[in-house]
Every structure is written in structure tokens, then in C-alpha cells.
Prior knowledge:
This protein is elongated. The chain has an eight-stranded mixed sheet, sandwiched between helices. About 35% of the residues lie in helices and about 25% in strands. The mean pLDDT is about 95. The chain folds into two domains: about 5-185 and about 300-385, Aminopeptidase (3-Layer(aba) Sandwich), CATH 3.40.630.10; about 185-300, Alpha-Beta Plaits, CATH 3.30.70.360. Helix 2 crosses helix 4 (about 105-125) and helix 7 (about 210-220) runs antiparallel to helix 9 (about 265-285). It is of the alpha/beta class.
Amino acid sequence: MPVRNRFAESHAEITEWRRDIHAHPEILYETHRTSALVADKLRAFGCDEVVTGIGRTGVVGVIRGRANGSGRVIGLRADMDALPIVEATGADYASKIPGAMHACGHDGHTAMLLGAARYLAETRNFDGTAVVIFQPAEEGGAGARAMCEDGLMERFGIQEVYGMHNWPGLPQGSFAIRSGAFFAATDQFEIALTGKGGHAAKPHETVDTTVMAAHLVTALQTIASRNADPVDQVVVSVTSFQTSSNAFNVIPQGVHLKGTVRTMSAAMRALAEARIRALAEHVTAGFGGSAGVDYHRGYPVMVNHAEQTEFAAAVAARVAGDCADAALVMGGEDFAFMLEERPGAYILVGNGDTAMVHHPEYDFNDEAIPAGCSWWAGIVEERMPV
């Protein structure tokens, strides 16, 4: 089952859809134009149901196969939102919205799933029901969780769910996947350190928060080097260090730190949070100061289910000739919430030698469209054969 002729024939049209979406990026849940475009196309394709407003601005299309003896229901998910980045591609179809850009390829994901939805609605060569899911707010807004909390899985009877992301550096149109933990849990922390401010010429009369904070930043690195099992994955990065005074001759009263934690297991996630709290408390106490920690748990670890991963890889190999073993990714992905609700799998499709996602010069590679559409269609037709 190589790339389907239908997608090769409609490649130019799907590319036009993608580039239109690219030119009109929308952030988080503000995907009003994109959601309307998706809903209009799904209705024009002849989907049996088109439902809007799931997870605020999410869109769901239901396509029933020519038979339904199996009773199976498969969900296919694409994300729609863009990023607050100023585009630097110079493309003819570059963003028309100042400060917003499709820098992660969600425009390509949406276009590919639309292409697959049209094909499935036309052919209906499967025994069961395909549910196409267009999700807002993947980029930090937990749109997948919002759709699940709105009853996505129960309302549409979804039994399995599959997702896909383009991947720069992976050969164009090729695939890669891994079973088990795949994308990391993504947590955030803020630490407010308080000391005693004063004149920089009289440090002995102060409790120096800059020295305190510097020691704490260094101590936090021991979570990975001395607390975690060396075979476990954990990243603790302090990404912001702000003092309450910017004067040359003032020791500030307070310092505010921000950072992120990336882990691949629930146990490591709990350990990292506990150690951050303990280090903040005791390092600052050792200097005579204090610290308050605000720890926010973001997306959970995204875990591919074994059976569905094996199946997804087999479909990909029939499309592209092979499916590689993917490396662990310390980035986050809110498809994790859907995989907590239902068994399924998430795969990478090659974007070729392009700028990395979240870069102002990144652009989705339209040449990957036929392979991506074919994989979506293959998931439905092979998982629910007539």
C-alpha cells in the first residue's frame, strides 16, 4: 500500500488549503477562522455529522463506513493552532497576522487530515466509523484536555485514537514511532526568593538574594546529576532570573526564578518536584532567606500503547517502505491527554531538511502531504477492513 493515487492527484489542492491556513494563523483557542474553514469543508465532503464547539473551538467530523458490523470507532486527531512568533520564511503565503505564525506545522496536520477525511467520505471503504478531530490550543493551552473534558471520547464512542506530527530532520515522507513513553511531561516552576536588601557596599548588613539565587540555580542541576537514576530522563532548566532592583549599587530584596522540568515517568516527575521544593527551602534558609515555590504540572508524559503502535508502524511501512524507531522527545505534546483516555499511537512524518519547529524560518514541507494523508486513510481502512 504505497501512497494512494487519490492523494497524489489532489496534492496541489490540499497544498492550497495548507497555505491558506498558513497565511492566517490563529493562537490557542482563537482558531475561529480555521475552525470555520474545517467545518465548512467537512460538510462539503459529506461527513455524516459535523460538530463544532468541542473544547471551545474544536471541530469533529463523523464518517460512517459502508458497513458497521465491526462496531469499531477510530479517532484521528490534528491540531490547528499557531505560535506567537514573527515569521521569517519570506514565502508568498507567509503569515498575514502580525506576531503569529504556523511555526510547528499544524497547518500541514490540519490540511492532511482534511485530505484524508474527503477521501474517506468519498470511498467509505471500511467497516466502522471514522471520527476526525481538529483540536485547538495544543501549544500550551491543553486543547486536547479541553476536548476530552467536553466528552469527546464518550460522545462519539471513540475506541482508539491516532495522531501525527511532522518532524524536521526525518527524511521527507518517511515515518518514525516508538512504543511507550515518547514525549515528555512538561512542567513549569516559579521560585520567589526573599532576603534583606541593602547597599551593595555593605553586603554584611543584607541577606543577598542574588548569591542565594545563584547557589540555588546550581543546586537545581543536581536533581539530574545526583538524584535521578542515570538511566532515567529528566531536564531541569532555569530560564529566567529577575532581581527586584536593577541598580548597580543595590542588593535586591527579592529574586524571581522561572524554569521548566521535563520527565518521562510519573515517579521522576514527582521526584523532581519534591527536590525543587526542598532545595529552594533549604538553600535559601542556609543564607538566612526564604523561598516560595509555585509548581505547575503541565502536559503529562505521552505514552504510546504497544498494540496500536505496532499497527501504526505497519501502516506507515506500507506507505513509505519502512518505519524507523523514533528517539525519545523531551518536548511536550497534549495528545497525551487523549492517550490517557483511549488506547492509540502518535507517529512522526518526515519534513525533510528544514528548520526545526518553533523557529521563525520553519515551514511545513508540502511534499509530505501524500504520505501523511495515506497514513491517515490506511489507519482507518486497515484497522476496520470491509
